[in-house]
Amino acid sequence: MPAIRHIPIDTYPESTVFLPRRDNGYSPEQFKAMRKVQVTGRCGEILATLAIVDGDGLVRPGEVGLGNEAFRRLGMTEGEEVVITQAPVPASLEDVRRKIDGESLSDSEISAIIRDIATHRYSPMEIGAFLVACAGFMSTPETLAMTRAMVDVGSRLSWDSPLVVDKHCIGGVPGNRTSMIVVPIVAAHGLIIPKTSSRAITSPSGTADTMEVLANVDLDAARVAQIVARDHAVLAWGGKMNLSPADDVLISVERPLRIDTFEQMVASILSKKAAAGSTHLVLDIPIGPTAKVRSEGEAVRLRKLFEYVARHMGIVTEVVFTDGSEPVGRGIGPVLEARDVMAVLRNEADAPDDLRDRAVMLAGKVIDFDPEVEGGRGYARAMELLSSGAALAAMERLIAAQGAQTTIYRPGIHQFEATAPVAGRVASIDCHRIARIARLAGAPMDKGAGIDLLHKTGAHVRRGEALYRIHAGSKDGLAFAREMALADSGYLVQP
Amino acid sequence: MPAIRHIPIDTYPESTVFLPRRDNGYSPEQFKAMRKVQVTGRCGEILATLAIVDGDGLVRPGEVGLGNEAFRRLGMTEGEEVVITQAPVPASLEDVRRKIDGESLSDSEISAIIRDIATHRYSPMEIGAFLVACAGFMSTPETLAMTRAMVDVGSRLSWDSPLVVDKHCIGGVPGNRTSMIVVPIVAAHGLIIPKTSSRAITSPSGTADTMEVLANVDLDAARVAQIVARDHAVLAWGGKMNLSPADDVLISVERPLRIDTFEQMVASILSKKAAAGSTHLVLDIPIGPTAKVRSEGEAVRLRKLFEYVARHMGIVTEVVFTDGSEPVGRGIGPVLEARDVMAVLRNEADAPDDLRDRAVMLAGKVIDFDPEVEGGRGYARAMELLSSGAALAAMERLIAAQGAQTTIYRPGIHQFEATAPVAGRVASIDCHRIARIARLAGAPMDKGAGIDLLHKTGAHVRRGEALYRIHAGSKDGLAFAREMALADSGYLVQP
């Protein structure tokens, strides 16, 4: 049996096995057909892509080289022996092919597919094929089966409470950082709200990216449990908790292919919520011509799909349609959004109204889940907790508990102002365009990069007056964003 | 600018670039987002997957390592300088996304997608997404546009003749090696028939695999032209001629995903024929319960699609439906099929009738394209050329011209006979099952591996009498095939 050797090569997200071309026990023809191999050792097995090495520089006959990812996943030490075999073709791929042919799949078939995806048995190509086939047609029962299967293959958080609330927005509206206001309000009220969120996938910032400007978000499940036990809440990145790991794998393929169907959205969101132990959920669906959901009709279809799956998963869900016609607040990008959030929590006079109003409305709906609260009094209670400073105090406790951020992030020093081409009224702001410009400036990786909106829809501006300011930490980032803003600022100003 | 260094690692079919983790000019965050890079140098540019190397063992700061495939494709020498940039996202991917959303694409959109696929700008995942979206719905004009685009991105052969004939079978029936009989008959008649064929994709042997038992098939376009100029014909592997290179890339993804739609089949076959300069084509569609086309209705739909696209490509096409209910001839696998073909050409008394009859019928239809031949006399002419030995002589000339095979291949020495479980009549033979067993035995890589059918449908057999003999060159191959044959031989014997 060959012995393993760690080859310090990073081929993330793929695992790679390096075998010498000579004397490896296989014929060249067998090798060509293999491509993917299974490495079985003392601690279990992994699947990996095969690379063949000429010469003795990297691996010698009798050795198996494991790249960083493969070495880490196998969890053995150098010199230990392993067995290399051709990777078995997952049996569930037959059902993927049937799905491509337009058939519907049973619960157990979908479950087997999701299990194989979560355990890295599918190649990105095979995952892509499955997702595109699902994008073509996916029934409501199939969506439910997928959601359940995604929960089953991951870890679950559990809480000593019959009422565990959450609030989620489907995204697509830049600056819409209401969670960071809703969570402290609800925590101040006393409900349990363990909010795990993602980093930005295609947007200029996710809740985890913005919260990270203020505090550590990189918490494991044990630390999350400790913080929630004391403070009722958390605002953590979900990536370390193994909640719905199949979702993470699916997203890694959905992102480059930009697959963003309602069915995948529902399965992704509700599997994460169920795994996080949520019992009650307020779900925000913004509607607008440049948002993810573009019409009331689409929103109703999406709402029904959420309601169906949530009901069968045992999650009480209240769907709220909100205005997605323009960005929320002023800042877009982690630092600028964090500034807006803290301004609202501090009740500053110039805090953005739209962000505050929306957050209080959503917090009120979450508080309305509390059986102790008189019907319809959630909104007033939320407003009171914000105005009194109780929400701010709850946020400060959360920041301290998670660990205050030690790096001071500031808005990027390289700046450019997009200006009004004519005098007139701001008729519309393109969410999609603004998000792309903010991403080009460097958000969310460059925390200080983004856009500061100086005027919103309805404002009257003079010709040449600044509409928004782009911030970037690098000259290149600013140049890219500036170029795009000059081609089309995303603002429509009507004389 | 960094200098290139050849890293002797084979990551076929992907190209890989190895960069040192330290001092490579990029931040870790940028790297994570890059994954695919463009390497631009003196001779052009390539796209490649990025691998990051720790330590100085493989690449040092200031160097760019290129794996075997990347080094070969870039075509520069070690030490020359290159520029590394993030690989641009092909603009045509936007249209792939629209196709996933169910839209139809225009000719120019499909053309751009095929161009990007042929120039390796798509990842396998992206190609898979495109193919699965097309499998969901693809219009006839889209199929035509794809066929045209596939021809446009490759080389074309041209011939000094207004009549260049070809014969093609869509496959799916083991042992159906009629091309190797049709081509010498038609060549003996005097028509130009430059037959390029593929190696087996999912079957136990392709025409190129079987012809290779007798002669060299690995010819470039110049050699093919020489041979055709003298002998009117060739029986070559098409892989070296750059005919429809997009098809080769698409097939590399269709195969693992087992995508085999009529639309892809038509585009694949007709793009290769148009690129090979064919003006007239006889197309064989076998129909049978275990063949690719399972009913007359399906066959008619496929025929119409072929006719529509072929007409617009300017290829006169005669579609022939044949019996695909059982394998043709006796041998399955390169050596055993070559034996059957030569037995027919040599007019041996025990040559398989069904193979001969089908080949003569198809050759007759090809000869009927010749305006010099009296209407309906093609069949008689084909039979005469076979019986007289003219076809055999033509085949011998072809073998000599292409270069007779120097290795003597023989049927695999490891053998197992599948036997009748009861006395009775052979009611049916499962083409699909027989093909899988032959592949497990080692065909087509192991040329002597395969199956020799001792009885065909309608034969009466005793209990325990041998139905077929499996041949394999390795004990493992025989064991795999034997196990599968014992589980289900593919023969239905009815008492």
From TrEMBL, chains A, B:
<comment type="similarity">
    <text>Belongs to the thymidine/pyrimidine-nucleoside phosphorylase family. Type 2 subfamily.</text>
</comment>
<dbReference type="InterPro" id="IPR013102">
    <property type="entry name" value="PYNP_C"/>
</dbReference>
<protein>
    <recommendedName>
        <fullName>Putative thymidine phosphorylase</fullName>
        <ecNumber>2.4.2.4</ecNumber>
    </recommendedName>
</protein>
<dbReference type="InterPro" id="IPR013466">
    <property type="entry name" value="Thymidine/AMP_Pase"/>
</dbReference>
<dbReference type="InterPro" id="IPR017872">
    <property type="entry name" value="Pyrmidine_PPase_CS"/>
</dbReference>
<keyword id="KW-0328">Glycosyltransferase</keyword>
<dbReference type="InterPro" id="IPR028579">
    <property type="entry name" value="Thym_Pase_Put"/>
</dbReference>
<feature type="domain" description="Pyrimidine nucleoside phosphorylase C-terminal">
    <location>
        <begin position="425"/>
        <end position="492"/>
    </location>
</feature>
<dbReference type="InterPro" id="IPR035902">
    <property type="entry name" value="Nuc_phospho_transferase"/>
</dbReference>
<dbReference type="Pfam" id="PF00591">
    <property type="entry name" value="Glycos_transf_3"/>
</dbReference>
<dbReference type="InterPro" id="IPR036566">
    <property type="entry name" value="PYNP-like_C_sf"/>
</dbReference>
<keyword id="KW-0808">Transferase</keyword>
<dbReference type="InterPro" id="IPR036320">
    <property type="entry name" value="Glycosyl_Trfase_fam3_N_dom_sf"/>
</dbReference>
<dbReference type="Pfam" id="PF07831">
    <property type="entry name" value="PYNP_C"/>
</dbReference>
<dbReference type="InterPro" id="IPR000312">
    <property type="entry name" value="Glycosyl_Trfase_fam3"/>
</dbReference>
<dbReference type="Pfam" id="PF02885">
    <property type="entry name" value="Glycos_trans_3N"/>
</dbReference>
<dbReference type="InterPro" id="IPR000053">
    <property type="entry name" value="Thymidine/pyrmidine_PPase"/>
</dbReference>
<dbReference type="InterPro" id="IPR017459">
    <property type="entry name" value="Glycosyl_Trfase_fam3_N_dom"/>
</dbReference>
